[in-house]
Amino acid sequence: MDTRATDQAPAAAILAKGDDRGGAATPLLAVSGLTKHFPIARGTVVRAVDGIDFEVRKGETLGIVGESGCGKSTTARLVMHLIAQDAGELLFDGELVDGQALPLKAYRRQAQMVFQDSYASLNPRMTIEASVAFGPQVHGLSRDDAIARARALLGKVGLEPARFAGRYPHELSGGQRQRVNIARALALNPRLVILDEAVSALDKSVEAQVLNLLLDLRQEFDLTYVFISHDLNVVRFMSDRVMVMYLGEIVEIGPVEALYARPKHPYTRALLAAMPSMDPDRRTEEAPLAGDPPNPINPPAGCRFHPRCPFAEALCATKPPALRDSEGAGHKAACHMAQPGSGHSRAPVAPETVA
Amino acid sequence: MTVPLVRIEDLRVVFKGAPNVHAVNGVSLDLAPGEVLGILGESGSGKSVTLKTLLRLLPERRSEITGRIEVDGRDIMTLGKTELAAYRGGVASMIFQDPALAFDPVYTIGAQISETVMQHASVSRAEADRRALDLLERVRIPSPERRLKAYPHELSGGMRQRAMIALALAGNPKLLLADEPTTALDATVQIQILLLIRQLQRDLGMGVIFVTHDIGVAVEICDRIAIMYAGQIVETGTVRELIRDARHPYTRGLLAANLHGAIKGERLDAIPGAPPALHTAPTCCPFAPRCSEAMDACLQTRVTDVQLGKGRRVRCLKAVPEHAVP
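Structure tokens for the assembled complex are given below, as produced in the milestone run.
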């Protein structure tokens, strides 16, 4: 008990939220030229993420959507430095991640991740309290302080510590385990939390509870989220801005309501049209796209979407469109049709919205 | 009234073990010929178990099944071994979530479909092969001649799902049972498969029971929906009735959880808690512990169906029956 005063100071320092170094205008995360090619047999590679640039602003939630193989999970893992990028760099609040000012260990205190599989994410031989306390201990907190921190966080995520702290992962339901994973992600008081399909494996009624929890925590801990999901309804509900990926590239990024109401890229339009309608009088009559998404081993030349695009022209097969904002509203699309003077017959002459 | 294609009366399924699991607790439903019924529920609600019972796929020794099931006028609980083999695939057929598991990996797609055709019709090999090709064309697989010779692993996910549907249709069934067939698919492929099932159902006049946890999918494909919770059907009605005028608090909670009418960034009206473990059969309303409108009576009395109209039932003490309906 005498040592409490001396323990308290370092504990507070370790758990202190990282300073806002760059100011409000600096993005919390700036990604440029991020690339990851996974080698497979005989010199071929899977171009999982192929030179993407995007920013995550302070306090916002950026949604990432796309179908399997589009690179959304690889992007999350690259951002977390769980796998090394082949090219590109990450700036966290203006500082180079894994550079002099921000070594990896310090970065990982500020950026955390929650995965889809709640069971595989937890060590089955550790109580959930020990799992949540593990990170803070690695970063120098005493065991007692770390356990106290873990119990407080379990309370925050709706798992009453007196009942749950000593349980093992197999003694919890999927929704409860995901709450533990969220508590663990918050244990070091991070600024950025990446949620990679974190609610996708849950039943709908439980998913709604966890979404509510994420909304509450964002407010309370002043968090910035990257929210990855294949469920466009959930992404719309959670996100401020949305990024759409296709075959390792960003095809469109913009404010959520603008992107859902006026998608600029034909792939985004198809993805939105493929959502089951909730109106029995307006059922979908025609599939917006034929066939399966192609695999990213040999992506098509030019615009990667052109073989499936109903508006493709000769230009699209040869020249890859740049991700560009033609109106200055922060709504960018990588499509020749959205870019004035691109040479596509549907491209606007003057800078104006494509219908 | 026409004779129903499927009639289930008071179906109960208990899986014996330590502890027992009361998976289905008194399900009754009818399916008219050519009708598409959706069974909607979360994991553990008994929707897949109900579906599997219709093909007698549950392990006989470990499950205790009571109640009555008639399909196409026949009591399927009493079918013998050979009758059952003819019934499966010939009268009722099933498609699953994972087509990779429905095919044998060491035989070609064509061989497996032809084999099933010959199983249900006395035709020559050549005729069976011709029908297999027809079936692949029916499910709109591009270059079907080539795909007949392909092994299951050589097809993409959406293509394999189409091939499995072709396999299920090989015996000309009157009833198609679909167990979350689009859950594992990407959004743009899911809608293609839903439209295909809808088209085939219309062309062939099959009855379909479609199990899903996704309300949106059910709205796209079903005429009627039955909502399951804790092994019981808590609400039944047409798609329109359920979407526009849900009466059971659980149905309303599910709609809210699907962000039906949710306001961006505002807390959702989420159902608290989790479904019951079902180690004993429910004696009162199983949803009452999670229900915001529960009264004392909900925890004390057995709840029976309230008829709201033709084919419209709700199992809730608070539901008020419609007056004018006979």
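Chain B has a mean pLDDT of 92. The CA atoms of residues 93 and 169 of chain B lie 7 Å apart. Further analysis is deferred to the final report.
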